[in-house]
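Build the 3D complex.
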Amino acid sequence: MTSGIGEPAWVRVGLVAACVAAMGLLLVLPLILVFVEAFSKGAAFLWNALSEPDAVAAIRLTLLVAAIAVPINTVFGLTAAWCVSRFRFRGRGVLVALIELPFSVSPVVSGLVYVLLFGLQGWFGPVLERHGIRIIFAVPGIVLATVFVTSPFVARHLMPLMAAQGVAEEEAALTLGASGWQMFRLVTLPRIGWALMTGVLLCTARAMGEFGAVSVVSGHIRGLTNTMPLHIEILYNEYQLAAAFAMSAVLTCLALVTIGLRGLLEWRGQVVAQRGQLAVRVRA
Amino acid sequence: MIRMQGIVRSFGPGRVLDGIDLDIIRGSFVALLGPSGSGKTTLLRIIAGLDSPDAGTLFIDGKNATNLRPGARKAGFVFQGYALFNHMTVFDNVAFGLRVKPRARRPSESEIRTKVENLLVMMQLDGLGPRLPSQLSGGQQQRVALARALAVEPLILLLDEPFGALDQDVRQSLREELRKLHNRLGLTTVFVSHDQDEAHALADRVVVLDRGRIKTS
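Done.
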Protein backbone atom coordinates (compact mmCIF):
# COMPACT_ATOMS: atom_id res chain seq x y z
CA MET A 1 0.00 0.00 0.00
CA THR A 2 1.36 3.43 -0.88
CA SER A 3 0.28 6.71 0.54
CA GLY A 4 -0.51 9.32 -2.08
CA ILE A 5 -0.13 12.19 0.35
CA GLY A 6 3.16 10.92 1.66
CA GLU A 7 2.87 11.08 5.44
CA PRO A 8 5.55 9.21 7.34
CA ALA A 9 4.62 5.68 8.33
CA TRP A 10 4.37 6.43 12.04
CA VAL A 11 1.71 9.09 11.41
CA ARG A 12 -0.40 6.67 9.41
CA VAL A 13 -0.01 3.89 11.95
CA GLY A 14 -0.72 6.33 14.79
CA LEU A 15 -3.90 7.65 13.17
CA VAL A 16 -5.21 4.20 12.41
CA ALA A 17 -4.39 3.06 15.93
CA ALA A 18 -6.17 6.06 17.44
CA CYS A 19 -9.20 5.32 15.27
CA VAL A 20 -9.28 1.67 16.24
CA ALA A 21 -8.82 2.54 19.92
CA ALA A 22 -11.67 5.07 19.84
CA MET A 23 -13.94 2.63 18.03
CA GLY A 24 -13.06 -0.10 20.47
CA LEU A 25 -13.68 2.07 23.49
CA LEU A 26 -16.89 3.67 22.28
CA LEU A 27 -18.50 0.93 20.20
CA VAL A 28 -17.04 -2.52 20.67
CA LEU A 29 -16.42 -2.47 24.41
CA PRO A 30 -20.00 -1.50 25.37
CA LEU A 31 -21.26 -4.12 22.96
CA ILE A 32 -19.18 -6.81 24.61
CA LEU A 33 -20.23 -5.51 28.04
CA VAL A 34 -23.91 -5.96 27.16
CA PHE A 35 -23.38 -9.64 26.49
CA VAL A 36 -21.02 -10.16 29.45
CA GLU A 37 -23.56 -8.62 31.83
CA ALA A 38 -26.42 -10.53 30.24
CA PHE A 39 -24.64 -13.81 30.94
CA SER A 40 -23.28 -12.70 34.33
CA LYS A 41 -25.81 -14.81 36.26
CA GLY A 42 -25.64 -17.75 33.92
CA ALA A 43 -27.59 -18.95 30.92
CA ALA A 44 -30.46 -20.28 33.03
CA PHE A 45 -31.09 -16.86 34.56
CA LEU A 46 -30.92 -15.29 31.11
CA TRP A 47 -33.50 -17.73 29.81
CA ASN A 48 -35.79 -17.12 32.77
CA ALA A 49 -35.50 -13.36 32.45
CA LEU A 50 -36.48 -13.54 28.79
CA SER A 51 -39.28 -16.09 29.14
CA GLU A 52 -40.99 -14.16 31.90
CA PRO A 53 -44.46 -13.10 30.59
CA ASP A 54 -43.82 -9.33 30.64
CA ALA A 55 -40.56 -9.82 28.76
CA VAL A 56 -42.21 -12.01 26.15
CA ALA A 57 -44.99 -9.43 25.77
CA ALA A 58 -42.40 -6.66 25.28
CA ILE A 59 -40.54 -8.63 22.62
CA ARG A 60 -43.79 -9.49 20.87
CA LEU A 61 -45.01 -5.87 20.93
CA THR A 62 -41.69 -4.57 19.59
CA LEU A 63 -41.79 -6.99 16.68
CA LEU A 64 -45.46 -6.17 16.03
CA VAL A 65 -44.79 -2.42 15.99
CA ALA A 66 -41.84 -2.88 13.63
CA ALA A 67 -43.91 -5.16 11.40
CA ILE A 68 -46.53 -2.42 11.03
CA ALA A 69 -44.29 0.66 10.96
CA VAL A 70 -41.70 -0.58 8.47
CA PRO A 71 -44.10 -1.45 5.60
CA ILE A 72 -45.94 1.85 6.12
CA ASN A 73 -42.70 3.80 5.95
CA THR A 74 -41.47 1.79 2.97
CA VAL A 75 -44.55 2.78 0.99
CA PHE A 76 -44.34 6.34 2.29
CA GLY A 77 -40.64 6.61 1.50
CA LEU A 78 -41.09 5.26 -2.02
CA THR A 79 -44.01 7.61 -2.70
CA ALA A 80 -42.26 10.65 -1.25
CA ALA A 81 -38.99 9.99 -3.06
CA TRP A 82 -40.92 9.40 -6.28
CA CYS A 83 -42.84 12.68 -6.01
CA VAL A 84 -39.81 14.73 -5.03
CA SER A 85 -37.51 13.34 -7.71
CA ARG A 86 -40.03 13.05 -10.54
CA PHE A 87 -42.15 16.17 -10.31
CA ARG A 88 -41.52 19.87 -9.94
CA PHE A 89 -44.36 21.40 -7.99
CA ARG A 90 -45.12 24.26 -5.67
CA GLY A 91 -44.12 23.43 -2.13
CA ARG A 92 -41.63 20.77 -3.20
CA GLY A 93 -38.85 22.34 -1.13
CA VAL A 94 -41.12 22.41 1.90
CA LEU A 95 -41.94 18.73 1.43
CA VAL A 96 -38.24 17.83 1.26
CA ALA A 97 -37.62 19.73 4.48
CA LEU A 98 -40.65 18.14 6.14
CA ILE A 99 -39.44 14.64 5.33
CA GLU A 100 -36.34 15.38 7.40
CA LEU A 101 -38.33 16.84 10.29
CA PRO A 102 -38.58 13.66 12.40
CA PHE A 103 -34.76 13.52 12.45
CA SER A 104 -34.40 17.01 13.81
CA VAL A 105 -37.30 17.11 16.27
CA SER A 106 -36.65 15.50 19.63
CA PRO A 107 -38.54 12.18 19.80
CA VAL A 108 -40.03 13.22 23.13
CA VAL A 109 -41.61 16.24 21.46
CA SER A 110 -43.09 14.12 18.67
CA GLY A 111 -44.53 11.81 21.33
CA LEU A 112 -46.03 14.74 23.18
CA VAL A 113 -47.65 16.02 20.00
CA TYR A 114 -49.55 12.76 19.69
CA VAL A 115 -50.65 12.98 23.29
CA LEU A 116 -51.92 16.51 22.65
CA LEU A 117 -53.76 15.30 19.54
CA PHE A 118 -55.21 11.99 20.66
CA GLY A 119 -54.92 12.03 24.45
CA LEU A 120 -58.02 12.33 26.66
CA GLN A 121 -57.39 16.06 27.10
CA GLY A 122 -56.29 16.42 23.47
CA TRP A 123 -58.04 17.74 20.37
CA PHE A 124 -59.48 14.47 19.11
CA GLY A 125 -59.38 12.65 22.46
CA PRO A 126 -63.04 13.17 23.50
CA VAL A 127 -64.38 12.18 20.07
CA LEU A 128 -62.27 9.02 20.01
CA GLU A 129 -63.22 8.19 23.60
CA ARG A 130 -66.92 8.38 22.71
CA HIS A 131 -66.35 5.81 19.97
CA GLY A 132 -64.31 3.66 22.29
CA ILE A 133 -61.04 4.12 20.43
CA ARG A 134 -57.87 4.37 22.49
CA ILE A 135 -54.73 5.62 20.85
CA ILE A 136 -52.65 7.08 23.66
CA PHE A 137 -51.42 4.59 26.28
CA ALA A 138 -52.29 1.86 23.79
CA VAL A 139 -50.70 0.05 20.87
CA PRO A 140 -52.00 2.40 18.11
CA GLY A 141 -50.20 5.33 19.75
CA ILE A 142 -46.96 3.37 19.91
CA VAL A 143 -47.28 2.47 16.24
CA LEU A 144 -48.06 6.10 15.31
CA ALA A 145 -45.08 7.44 17.24
CA THR A 146 -42.77 4.82 15.75
CA VAL A 147 -44.01 5.50 12.22
CA PHE A 148 -43.38 9.20 12.70
CA VAL A 149 -39.89 8.84 14.14
CA THR A 150 -38.72 6.31 11.52
CA SER A 151 -40.43 7.86 8.50
CA PRO A 152 -37.35 9.55 6.97
CA PHE A 153 -35.14 6.47 6.60
CA VAL A 154 -36.44 5.01 3.34
CA ALA A 155 -37.24 8.37 1.77
CA ARG A 156 -33.83 9.81 2.59
CA HIS A 157 -32.04 6.84 1.12
CA LEU A 158 -34.00 6.93 -2.11
CA MET A 159 -34.29 10.66 -2.82
CA PRO A 160 -30.71 11.46 -3.87
CA LEU A 161 -30.41 8.23 -5.85
CA MET A 162 -33.65 8.67 -7.76
CA ALA A 163 -32.89 12.32 -8.44
CA ALA A 164 -29.48 11.35 -9.85
CA GLN A 165 -30.87 8.53 -11.97
CA GLY A 166 -33.38 10.71 -13.76
CA VAL A 167 -36.52 9.58 -15.55
CA ALA A 168 -35.30 8.60 -19.01
CA GLU A 169 -35.34 4.83 -18.41
CA GLU A 170 -38.85 5.01 -16.99
CA GLU A 171 -40.01 7.09 -19.94
CA ALA A 172 -38.42 4.56 -22.26
CA ALA A 173 -40.45 1.82 -20.58
CA LEU A 174 -43.64 3.84 -21.11
CA THR A 175 -42.95 4.44 -24.80
CA LEU A 176 -42.40 0.70 -25.18
CA GLY A 177 -45.94 0.10 -23.93
CA ALA A 178 -45.31 -0.74 -20.26
CA SER A 179 -48.09 0.08 -17.81
CA GLY A 180 -47.27 2.20 -14.78
CA TRP A 181 -47.01 -0.89 -12.60
CA GLN A 182 -44.80 -2.74 -15.13
CA MET A 183 -42.54 0.29 -15.33
CA PHE A 184 -42.24 0.39 -11.54
CA ARG A 185 -41.66 -3.34 -11.14
CA LEU A 186 -39.31 -3.92 -14.08
CA VAL A 187 -37.37 -0.66 -14.26
CA THR A 188 -37.71 1.52 -11.14
CA LEU A 189 -37.49 -1.18 -8.49
CA PRO A 190 -34.39 -3.00 -9.82
CA ARG A 191 -32.59 0.31 -10.13
CA ILE A 192 -33.25 1.40 -6.55
CA GLY A 193 -33.15 -2.09 -5.02
CA TRP A 194 -30.01 -1.78 -2.88
CA ALA A 195 -30.83 1.65 -1.55
CA LEU A 196 -34.39 0.59 -0.79
CA MET A 197 -33.26 -2.46 1.17
CA THR A 198 -30.68 -0.45 3.12
CA GLY A 199 -33.32 2.13 4.01
CA VAL A 200 -35.76 -0.57 5.08
CA LEU A 201 -33.16 -2.26 7.29
CA LEU A 202 -32.14 0.97 9.02
CA CYS A 203 -35.80 1.81 9.47
CA THR A 204 -36.37 -1.59 11.07
CA ALA A 205 -33.44 -1.19 13.46
CA ARG A 206 -34.68 2.20 14.57
CA ALA A 207 -38.31 1.08 14.84
CA MET A 208 -37.30 -1.67 17.26
CA GLY A 209 -35.02 0.59 19.27
CA GLU A 210 -37.09 3.78 19.50
CA PHE A 211 -37.41 4.98 23.08
CA GLY A 212 -38.30 8.67 23.45
CA ALA A 213 -41.48 9.08 21.45
CA VAL A 214 -42.78 5.64 22.40
CA SER A 215 -42.05 6.31 26.07
CA VAL A 216 -44.33 9.35 26.05
CA VAL A 217 -47.34 7.68 24.38
CA SER A 218 -47.03 4.22 25.87
CA GLY A 219 -48.06 4.70 29.48
CA HIS A 220 -45.66 1.89 30.49
CA ILE A 221 -48.34 -0.70 31.16
CA ARG A 222 -46.46 -3.92 31.78
CA GLY A 223 -47.38 -6.76 29.50
CA LEU A 224 -49.52 -4.46 27.37
CA THR A 225 -47.79 -1.31 26.15
CA ASN A 226 -44.15 -1.90 27.02
CA THR A 227 -41.78 -2.32 24.13
CA MET A 228 -38.33 -3.78 24.64
CA PRO A 229 -36.53 -0.45 25.20
CA LEU A 230 -39.19 0.60 27.72
CA HIS A 231 -39.01 -2.75 29.46
CA ILE A 232 -35.25 -2.38 29.75
CA GLU A 233 -35.63 1.01 31.39
CA ILE A 234 -38.12 -0.35 33.94
CA LEU A 235 -35.86 -3.27 34.82
CA TYR A 236 -32.92 -0.89 35.13
CA ASN A 237 -34.85 1.45 37.43
CA GLU A 238 -35.77 -1.53 39.59
CA TYR A 239 -32.10 -2.48 39.92
CA GLN A 240 -32.65 -5.72 38.04
CA LEU A 241 -29.45 -5.15 36.11
CA ALA A 242 -28.90 -8.68 34.88
CA ALA A 243 -32.47 -8.88 33.54
CA ALA A 244 -32.11 -5.45 31.93
CA PHE A 245 -28.95 -6.57 30.21
CA ALA A 246 -30.57 -9.81 29.13
CA MET A 247 -33.25 -7.84 27.29
CA SER A 248 -30.59 -5.43 25.99
CA ALA A 249 -28.69 -8.38 24.57
CA VAL A 250 -31.76 -9.46 22.58
CA LEU A 251 -32.30 -5.94 21.26
CA THR A 252 -28.61 -5.68 20.40
CA CYS A 253 -28.77 -9.01 18.58
CA LEU A 254 -31.68 -7.76 16.49
CA ALA A 255 -29.70 -4.64 15.61
CA LEU A 256 -26.58 -6.67 14.81
CA VAL A 257 -28.56 -8.97 12.52
CA THR A 258 -29.97 -5.93 10.75
CA ILE A 259 -26.57 -4.34 10.29
CA GLY A 260 -25.09 -7.68 9.25
CA LEU A 261 -27.77 -8.04 6.58
CA ARG A 262 -27.02 -4.55 5.36
CA GLY A 263 -23.32 -5.32 5.14
CA LEU A 264 -24.08 -8.53 3.28
CA LEU A 265 -26.26 -6.67 0.79
CA GLU A 266 -23.64 -4.03 0.18
CA TRP A 267 -20.95 -6.65 -0.25
CA ARG A 268 -23.12 -8.54 -2.73
CA GLY A 269 -23.83 -5.31 -4.59
CA GLN A 270 -20.11 -4.67 -4.93
CA VAL A 271 -19.41 -8.21 -6.06
CA VAL A 272 -22.05 -7.91 -8.77
CA ALA A 273 -20.63 -4.56 -9.89
CA GLN A 274 -17.08 -5.91 -9.92
CA ARG A 275 -18.12 -8.96 -11.86
CA GLY A 276 -19.61 -6.61 -14.47
CA GLN A 277 -16.38 -4.65 -14.75
CA LEU A 278 -14.33 -7.80 -14.86
CA ALA A 279 -16.40 -9.10 -17.74
CA VAL A 280 -15.69 -5.88 -19.64
CA ARG A 281 -11.99 -6.22 -19.05
CA VAL A 282 -11.92 -9.86 -20.11
CA ARG A 283 -13.75 -9.12 -23.35
CA ALA A 284 -11.71 -6.01 -24.07
CA MET B 1 -49.73 11.37 -40.80
CA ILE B 2 -49.02 13.49 -37.75
CA ARG B 3 -50.91 16.77 -37.50
CA MET B 4 -50.27 19.40 -34.85
CA GLN B 5 -52.62 22.33 -34.38
CA GLY B 6 -51.84 25.29 -32.17
CA ILE B 7 -49.59 23.38 -29.79
CA VAL B 8 -48.65 25.54 -26.78
CA ARG B 9 -46.49 24.45 -23.87
CA SER B 10 -45.14 26.52 -21.00
CA PHE B 11 -42.78 25.63 -18.17
CA GLY B 12 -43.29 28.17 -15.40
CA PRO B 13 -43.29 31.64 -16.88
CA GLY B 14 -41.50 30.68 -20.12
CA ARG B 15 -43.38 29.62 -23.24
CA VAL B 16 -41.41 26.77 -24.74
CA LEU B 17 -43.83 26.15 -27.60
CA ASP B 18 -45.85 29.09 -28.82
CA GLY B 19 -48.48 27.86 -31.25
CA ILE B 20 -47.04 25.09 -33.41
CA ASP B 21 -48.95 24.07 -36.56
CA LEU B 22 -47.23 21.27 -38.42
CA ASP B 23 -48.19 18.39 -40.69
CA ILE B 24 -45.84 15.45 -41.08
CA ILE B 25 -46.76 13.22 -44.00
CA ARG B 26 -46.69 9.47 -43.55
CA GLY B 27 -43.38 8.00 -44.65
CA SER B 28 -41.49 11.26 -44.54
CA PHE B 29 -38.17 11.82 -42.79
CA VAL B 30 -38.30 15.12 -40.92
CA ALA B 31 -35.65 16.97 -38.95
CA LEU B 32 -36.56 19.41 -36.18
CA LEU B 33 -33.68 21.86 -36.24
CA GLY B 34 -32.99 24.68 -33.85
CA PRO B 35 -30.72 26.05 -31.13
CA SER B 36 -31.04 24.73 -27.60
CA GLY B 37 -34.11 26.13 -25.92
CA SER B 38 -36.01 26.41 -29.19
CA GLY B 39 -38.56 23.83 -28.05
CA LYS B 40 -37.65 21.05 -30.47
CA THR B 41 -37.21 18.34 -27.85
CA THR B 42 -40.43 19.37 -26.11
CA LEU B 43 -42.28 19.05 -29.42
CA LEU B 44 -40.81 15.58 -29.97
CA ARG B 45 -41.83 14.56 -26.44
CA ILE B 46 -45.36 15.80 -27.08
CA ILE B 47 -45.59 13.65 -30.21
CA ALA B 48 -44.38 10.67 -28.13
CA GLY B 49 -46.82 11.37 -25.31
CA LEU B 50 -44.09 11.97 -22.73
CA ASP B 51 -45.31 15.53 -22.34
CA SER B 52 -48.71 17.04 -22.97
CA PRO B 53 -49.49 20.44 -24.45
CA ASP B 54 -51.24 23.16 -22.45
CA ALA B 55 -53.28 23.98 -25.54
CA GLY B 56 -53.62 22.62 -29.04
CA THR B 57 -54.35 19.25 -30.56
CA LEU B 58 -52.26 16.39 -31.90
CA PHE B 59 -53.69 14.02 -34.48
CA ILE B 60 -52.06 10.74 -35.46
CA ASP B 61 -53.59 9.18 -38.58
CA GLY B 62 -56.66 11.37 -38.26
CA LYS B 63 -57.38 10.44 -34.64
CA ASN B 64 -57.04 12.84 -31.75
CA ALA B 65 -53.99 11.54 -29.89
CA THR B 66 -53.42 14.51 -27.57
CA ASN B 67 -54.19 12.51 -24.44
CA LEU B 68 -53.30 9.04 -25.68
CA ARG B 69 -50.81 7.23 -23.43
CA PRO B 70 -47.28 6.89 -24.87
CA GLY B 71 -47.47 3.13 -25.34
CA ALA B 72 -50.60 3.35 -27.48
CA ARG B 73 -49.21 5.74 -30.10
CA LYS B 74 -47.23 3.24 -32.16
CA ALA B 75 -44.27 5.57 -31.76
CA GLY B 76 -40.78 4.39 -30.91
CA PHE B 77 -38.56 6.82 -29.05
CA VAL B 78 -34.76 6.90 -29.03
CA PHE B 79 -33.50 9.01 -26.14
CA GLN B 80 -30.56 11.36 -26.21
CA GLY B 81 -28.56 9.34 -23.68
CA TYR B 82 -30.11 6.08 -25.05
CA ALA B 83 -31.82 5.38 -21.67
CA LEU B 84 -31.06 1.68 -21.92
CA PHE B 85 -32.10 -0.48 -18.97
CA ASN B 86 -28.67 -0.90 -17.46
CA HIS B 87 -29.65 -3.76 -15.19
CA MET B 88 -30.85 -5.89 -18.13
CA THR B 89 -28.88 -7.64 -20.84
CA VAL B 90 -28.97 -6.32 -24.38
CA PHE B 91 -31.36 -9.15 -25.27
CA ASP B 92 -33.75 -8.28 -22.44
CA ASN B 93 -33.60 -4.60 -23.39
CA VAL B 94 -34.73 -5.35 -26.93
CA ALA B 95 -37.33 -7.87 -25.73
CA PHE B 96 -38.81 -5.46 -23.17
CA GLY B 97 -41.53 -3.97 -25.37
CA LEU B 98 -42.69 -7.46 -26.42
CA ARG B 99 -42.73 -8.85 -22.89
CA VAL B 100 -44.82 -6.05 -21.39
CA LYS B 101 -47.62 -6.51 -23.92
CA PRO B 102 -50.97 -7.61 -22.46
CA ARG B 103 -51.09 -11.42 -22.34
CA ALA B 104 -53.56 -11.70 -25.21
CA ARG B 105 -51.23 -9.88 -27.62
CA ARG B 106 -47.92 -11.05 -26.20
CA PRO B 107 -45.85 -13.30 -28.49
CA SER B 108 -44.60 -16.59 -27.06
CA GLU B 109 -41.11 -16.67 -25.56
CA SER B 110 -39.78 -18.53 -28.61
CA GLU B 111 -41.32 -15.98 -30.98
CA ILE B 112 -39.75 -13.23 -28.88
CA ARG B 113 -36.39 -14.99 -29.08
CA THR B 114 -36.55 -15.26 -32.88
CA LYS B 115 -37.65 -11.68 -33.27
CA VAL B 116 -35.02 -10.23 -30.95
CA GLU B 117 -32.23 -12.29 -32.56
CA ASN B 118 -33.31 -11.04 -35.98
CA LEU B 119 -33.29 -7.46 -34.77
CA LEU B 120 -29.85 -7.90 -33.24
CA VAL B 121 -28.54 -9.25 -36.54
CA MET B 122 -30.19 -6.41 -38.45
CA MET B 123 -28.54 -3.87 -36.14
CA GLN B 124 -25.17 -5.68 -36.37
CA LEU B 125 -25.36 -6.62 -32.71
CA ASP B 126 -25.38 -10.41 -33.17
CA GLY B 127 -23.64 -12.18 -30.34
CA LEU B 128 -23.97 -9.22 -27.99
CA GLY B 129 -27.34 -10.32 -26.57
CA PRO B 130 -26.01 -11.61 -23.22
CA ARG B 131 -23.96 -8.49 -22.51
CA LEU B 132 -24.93 -5.57 -20.31
CA PRO B 133 -25.30 -2.13 -21.94
CA SER B 134 -22.36 -0.80 -19.91
CA GLN B 135 -20.12 -3.29 -21.75
CA LEU B 136 -20.88 -1.78 -25.16
CA SER B 137 -19.45 1.16 -27.08
CA GLY B 138 -21.53 4.29 -27.62
CA GLY B 139 -22.38 3.34 -31.18
CA GLN B 140 -23.44 -0.15 -30.10
CA GLN B 141 -25.60 1.30 -27.33
CA GLN B 142 -27.28 3.52 -29.89
CA ARG B 143 -28.02 0.46 -32.02
CA VAL B 144 -29.52 -1.32 -29.01
CA ALA B 145 -31.73 1.70 -28.36
CA LEU B 146 -32.88 1.59 -32.00
CA ALA B 147 -33.47 -2.17 -31.92
CA ARG B 148 -35.44 -1.83 -28.69
CA ALA B 149 -37.65 0.90 -30.17
CA LEU B 150 -38.19 -1.08 -33.39
CA ALA B 151 -39.10 -4.34 -31.64
CA VAL B 152 -42.68 -3.25 -31.06
CA GLU B 153 -43.03 -2.40 -34.78
CA PRO B 154 -43.81 1.29 -34.45
CA LEU B 155 -45.18 3.33 -37.35
CA ILE B 156 -43.42 6.45 -36.13
CA LEU B 157 -39.79 6.67 -35.03
CA LEU B 158 -38.79 9.63 -32.87
CA LEU B 159 -35.12 10.35 -32.15
CA ASP B 160 -33.73 12.99 -29.81
CA GLU B 161 -30.26 14.11 -30.93
CA PRO B 162 -29.49 10.55 -32.02
CA PHE B 163 -25.89 11.08 -33.06
CA GLY B 164 -24.86 13.69 -30.52
CA ALA B 165 -22.30 11.77 -28.51
CA LEU B 166 -20.74 9.66 -31.26
CA ASP B 167 -17.46 9.85 -33.21
CA GLN B 168 -17.54 11.15 -36.74
CA ASP B 169 -17.21 7.74 -38.52
CA VAL B 170 -19.74 5.99 -36.29
CA ARG B 171 -22.06 8.92 -36.79
CA GLN B 172 -21.76 8.69 -40.58
CA SER B 173 -22.45 4.97 -40.77
CA LEU B 174 -25.35 5.15 -38.31
CA ARG B 175 -26.92 7.96 -40.33
CA GLU B 176 -26.86 5.83 -43.46
CA GLU B 177 -28.26 2.85 -41.59
CA LEU B 178 -31.06 4.91 -40.12
CA ARG B 179 -32.00 6.20 -43.55
CA LYS B 180 -32.06 2.64 -44.94
CA LEU B 181 -34.14 1.40 -42.01
CA HIS B 182 -36.58 4.22 -42.52
CA ASN B 183 -37.04 3.32 -46.19
CA ARG B 184 -37.20 -0.42 -45.66
CA LEU B 185 -39.69 -0.37 -42.78
CA GLY B 186 -41.84 2.43 -44.22
CA LEU B 187 -41.48 4.49 -41.04
CA THR B 188 -42.41 8.07 -40.42
CA THR B 189 -39.28 9.42 -38.79
CA VAL B 190 -38.83 12.65 -36.84
CA PHE B 191 -35.48 13.52 -35.33
CA VAL B 192 -34.22 16.44 -33.34
CA SER B 193 -30.89 17.99 -34.22
CA HIS B 194 -28.96 21.17 -33.68
CA ASP B 195 -26.57 20.34 -36.52
CA GLN B 196 -27.64 22.05 -39.73
CA ASP B 197 -25.50 19.89 -42.05
CA GLU B 198 -26.74 16.70 -40.44
CA ALA B 199 -30.38 17.78 -40.68
CA HIS B 200 -30.11 18.68 -44.36
CA ALA B 201 -28.04 15.62 -45.28
CA LEU B 202 -30.45 13.16 -43.72
CA ALA B 203 -33.97 14.54 -43.83
CA ASP B 204 -36.50 15.02 -46.62
CA ARG B 205 -37.70 18.09 -44.85
CA VAL B 206 -36.14 20.37 -42.27
CA VAL B 207 -38.38 22.25 -39.84
CA VAL B 208 -36.51 25.13 -38.21
CA LEU B 209 -37.70 26.11 -34.74
CA ASP B 210 -36.81 29.31 -32.96
CA ARG B 211 -38.06 30.33 -29.53
CA GLY B 212 -41.08 28.07 -29.69
CA ARG B 213 -42.22 28.98 -33.18
CA ILE B 214 -41.68 27.46 -36.60
CA LYS B 215 -39.40 29.71 -38.62
CA THR B 216 -39.22 27.76 -41.85
CA SER B 217 -40.47 24.39 -42.85
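The interface with chain A takes residues 48-50, 69-72, 75-77, 79-81, 83-87, 96-97, 100-101, 131-132, 134-135, 148-149, 151-152 of chain B (CB under 8 Å).
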